[in-house]
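Q: Could you fold this chain for me?
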Amino acid sequence: MFDTMTLTKVLGGFCGTLLVFLLGGWAAEAIYHSGGHGEGEQAYVIEVEEESTGEEGAAEDEGPAFEEVFASADAAAGEELWRNCRACHALEEGVNGTGPYLYGVVGRDVASVEGFNYSGALVEQADVWTPENLNHFLEDPSGWAPGTAMGYAGMRRIEDRANLIAYLDSIGG
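A: Sure. Below is the predicted structure, expressed as C-alpha cells.
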C-alpha cells in the first residue's frame, strides 16, 4: 500500500506547499512593506495653531476643579452611570466579579478587598480611595495606574465622574 514512491510524493507535496507559503510571504513583504511609504515629503501639511503654555491658557483649558464639581454632584445621576460599572463590579459587600466589589469604596484602603487578586499597580499610586483618587482613576485607569488590570477606557466628563463617585459614596459609606 505505501511504497517508496508514495512517501516521496507526500513529502514532495509538503515541501512544495511550504515553498509556496514562503514565497507568498516574501512577495507580500516586498509589496506591502518596502514600497517607500513615509520616506518622502508629505504632499500637503495641515497647519495647527500652537497651544499657549501660559498660566492663563492652562487655567481656561482645565475647567472647574474637581472639588467644586464634586460639591454639587448628583448621586441619582451617578446611579444611572453605574450601568457601565455593573458589568465587572458589584455593590454587595463581599461579592467580587471581574473586578472587586465597590460597596463602601470611597474612603476604603486601596487594594484591600479580601479574596481579590489585584495587579499591584494601584498601591503604587495611592493608599486610600479618596474622591480625588477615584476621579483620577476613573478618568484614565491605565494612565493613572500603569499596569492595572482594569480594561476600562475611562470616563471623560468630570461631571459624570463626580456624580458616579457621589453615588458610590452614598452606598455603604
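A (continued): The mean pLDDT is 85.
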